[in-house]
Please model this.
Amino acid sequence: MAVAASTSSNQYRVASRGPAIAGISQTLVRLACAVATGVALGELARGAIVSGSTVLVLTLVVRWMITWLIETLNAACERSLRVRWHVRSLSQMIIPPTNQRESRHDLDVAIEQASNAPTMTTIARAAQSSLLGVVVVFWAGGWLCALIVVALVAFAVPVYVRVGTRSSQLADNYQQRRATLQGRQLSLLRHVFELRALGSLPHGADEIAAATGVEQNAAMTALRLALQSSLVTEFLSGVSIGLVAMVVGFGLLGNRISLIHALVAVLVTSEMFSIIRRFGAEFHRRDDADRALALLASTAEPLSGGENAALVLTAQLISVGLATPLSISIAAGNRVLITGPSGAGKTTLLETMIGWRPPTFGVSTTSGRVGVVRPSGHLLAGTLRDNLCLGVNHRDDDVFSLLHELGLGDGQFGDLDLAIGDDARTLSSGERVKLLLARALLASCDVLVIDDVAGVLDDESRQLLRGVIERRPQLAILEAAIDRPLLTTNDFVIALELHHA
Amino acid sequence: MREWQRLGVWLRRAKPPRGDFARAIGTGVVANLAGVTLLAGAVGLLVTSSHQPGLRAVAGILIVIELVAFLRSPVRFAERMASHQLGFDAVRGWRRWLTLTVGSWPFQRWSSYASGDLLDRALRDTDELQDLWLRGVIPVTSGLIGVLLSFLAILLFPGRGGWWPVALALGATVALAAGLLLSQLAPLVNIERTLRRAQSERTALRVSFVSSVPEIALLGRKSFLEGSLESSARQVARAEQRLERRRTIVEIIPWAATALMVTLVSALRPTSALVWLLVVVMVGLGAGEILQVLRQALDTAVRVNAASERLDGLSYLPPFEHGSWPESSSLHVENLSWSSGNAAVLLGVSLDVVPRTRIAITGASGVGKSTLLRLLARLEETPRGSVKVGDIDLDQIDEVALRQHLAHVGPDCELFQGVVSDVMLQGRSTSHDVTADLAHVGLQADLKDSWTQLSRGEQQRASVVRALLSDPEIVLLDEPTSGLGERETAMVLSFLKASKATILVATHDALVMDWCDQVYQLEGGTLARVTR
Model:
């Protein structure tokens, strides 16, 4: 079973051009706003009140607008990404995973992290382009200022990144510990009823508060470490702005630069550091987003046989219970029966042949449509029509005649809008098997894979179903049965034996 | 208004100690002021230098700026730690509330919830709620105080009284903007609720599809599933978009207010240049900052609203009064009926129990013996009919008094991990000698011992001893000897006899039935005396 890598990584790259441009333009606008604010403050200092405050207000407005624009664009991008990934997550489960609940949770987490990707790109590009600010500082404050800023940025960036990564690691560790710590509180809550009978409910409340206290002490330790690291970043930016102000102040004193230049230098420095600090803080999320995208982009599908291949083709297939490697080619109209006692590996062999399990050795490919009929098959929560037609516009008459053929002609099955509840718990296993068969036939399947339905069918139903498949000689059928198979004639029998380890 | 009231109730449910609160607010105010002072100071330095008053003044201001820059970080650190401490205090208070609330549920509700994820979710919700303190009350309070202080500082500027109109105008603008922001909570919460509903529909659809997708993909009809899921996902996206739009409108408010304030200051200014510049800076920063903080608090309120609604759904008000335990402890049950859902369990049970008698209740498995005992112990919701102790209705008795005088021992007893004295006393005090009582039923244990793994029989015997530690007058036991051999059963029965309490025991055990004075059979929802 090969893993078909998809081309969605391409889609990701296209999607990132927009956010990248957004990031760069955001920085440019913010730097320009910083310059404008400096000019405005300078005007105000000179006494040109009206022009000064007008420019200040305009700056505020522009700054707000660019932030809003970027956030809206990114949010729209993320929304459409989430829709796409949710739909795509179905493709992730085409091969049934061993632990469905865990895989589902992993996918949920991956979708959330992957949809952060546009924002991460924006922040990264914004940080990179903020280095343009150095040019502005050079123009405003002279070479010394520019040198100081370059040195501080070069020192700050790795520190910010390291701090951000470390904080996120600490948070992850704490989350893991917390699950264990919360176990005690959960078990207390679960037995709170016994405490009530004893009249010790307030005591139980105290116990839970104490257990929470233990959990929170662990949290405080993690928090303290995280906060101490971020202290460093705050300190750095504070000191940088102070240094620049100092240099620029001395320049003002010596009449080397004008007030406006001085203000611009300080404000641009402040702006640069705030952009870079955000990058550092969010840096770890970028790794998460990339990893999540890789997970969502890879899909696994059962191997397809291609244009002229047989419907089911195996080559040197080894599976539990097979005495020798199996090489078989099943074409239209072939009937193959797999027999053996319970536990010999019939279901395993079937699942391997249709690609739901990796074979121990050898290869199996399918082509065309395969209908799987088994007592544990899943139905959708929806109407009868949804389940049988799967979105295709079959005529009601065709559907009813097929149901009639299968012995489901009357009662509740007379109404195609009948609601089938959550995994059809109200239906009997026999009815479920018949519905699955109807579904497969309506979808014009080429191969029918039947797994051990004898136990849920009474004699009359078995006769009906035998008739149905006999009337369709072009169907290829692969059936696994201990006894009383639906197939009355067959072209090939695979007999499995119980192997004791 | 209603939304704010609900969040207010949650804040009051876990009021923190005054000292912690003061520390958090205090450090917050200092940190805010430090930040504002830093930038204002830097700007002031530049302006001063441009007028060249002399190196000493510049050096002075420079030293102050650097000092503030150094101090700001540790102060910020102290503020964050104090805030989190406060948040944690609140979480402990909310979890106390959770325990008391869940503990007061009727048994039926509790048994359906306790097995699922609901309790786990509730614990996490109490954690989420602490943002009400961390990102709500604390930043808003310290921010408001900081802004107030900076407005007051404006009044000290030269211009001699001319700054009053400015301060007033600024205050009015902040108040107006704050009011506008707060009014947005209800519409935001409504939209967020719609979003949550759409999200849970999408999740349910996905869960349902995920199990079917292998088979349907093999049939070549995967696109049907993808189409349905896509339309559900798009509905979620539309709800998200509505929420974004509403939040944009909310975001305009702080910015518009800041712009208005800057305009007002320019229009109303009473005097000139340098000080003037500082005022503009401080106004812009302080007031804009507090409105941003308010907006973030609003966002927080919307976000934790879901958690608060879920926790509110758990609350339950037991319908009991506060009467005291009656003199006589005779039990009178009259025409008791109770049904679970549509199925009737008890249909008119009547019983009169004289104090100090021992009554066995027997019947087929699942017929309702446990339910009857729980109803008599007031652990199940109020039924039809009446249960009286003496001449007082069971519902009239105060919970604390009831539990002291009436004991119930259920069929599953599990709280047996830990130090023996803690496990047995569970916070109560007793006049009994616990060790002697335990020995009476065949358990050797010292008060300081630690129990880790008791067998089922040991747990059963220990729970009988535990229930009788408060010297109850009525004891209700549900299958207390089901896992015990003859010898142990005899020990338990002799222990119960020594207690001189009225005893009702649901049992199949012949030994127990012989030991009792009267035996009743529960069948078809009614109780009938069995004569022997």
Notes: Confidence is low (pLDDT under 50) at residues 1-10 of chain A. Chain A is about 65% helix and 10% strand. The two ends of chain A are 26 Å apart (CA to CA). Chain A touches chain B through 110 residues (CB under 8 Å).
